Amino acid sequence: MRTPSMEDYLEQIFTLIKAKGYARVADIAEALAVHPSSVTKMIQKLDKSEYLKYEKYRGFVLTSKGRKLGKRLVDRHAILEDFLRLIGVPETDIAQDVEGMEHHVGPETLSALSDLIQFMKDDPDRIAAFLEYRARGENEEREEDAHPPDHDASLSS
Ligand SMILES: [Mn+2]
């Protein structure tokens, strides 16, 4: 498994604070499946970059810079998740794929994806047409596997 990045930490911290009002090292460690000492190290790094203010024994709070970026990261995650779900990616793949994709998606791509999602949702027929198109393709592939095309027949026709 890949090592969570600074963005993953900030995203997780923002999510925890939004849900519970605070983020504890143990909760962050559990959510990201890392050792608590890695969390402490990253918190110090985020503190140095002024995304949060770390106070020993008292925990930490996000700065406005940290809140702003945290929100952007959480939104980006949500948009990508929405997008994959919309195009019919199985739930079992969505979480892992978003984790891999999100760090590479720039604002222009995200904005285009966001518009595409809206475009599709504005008219559910568009989504239905796409899903149907994909289902048809999959059926054709299955048929081709079952009956490999006869080359002589296709040449003579
Ligand atoms: Mn994420």
Description:
This protein has 157 residues and is mainly α. It folds into two domains: 6-68, Winged helix-like DNA-binding domain superfamily/Winged helix DNA-binding domain (Arc Repressor Mutant, subunit A); 72-146, Diphtheria Toxin Repressor, domain 2. The protein is 73% helix and 5% strand. It contains eight helices and two strands. The protein has helices at 6-20, 25-32, 36-48, 64-86, 91-101, 107-122, 124-146, 151-156; strands at 52-55, 59-62. Strands 1-2 form a two-stranded antiparallel sheet. A hairpin with a 3-residue loop joins strand 1 (52-55) and strand 2. It is elongated. The mean pLDDT is 90. Residues 8, 11, 77, 99, 102 line the site of manganese (II) ion.
> Number of DSSP strands?
2
Number of helices: 8
General shape:
elongated
Strand content: 5-15%
User: What characterizes the major β-sheet?
Assistant: 2 strands, antiparallel
**Distance separating the two termini:** 52 Å
CATH topology of the largest domain: Diphtheria Toxin Repressor, domain 2
Coarse structural class: mainly alpha
Instruction: Give the number of domains.
Output: 2
Low-confidence stretches: none
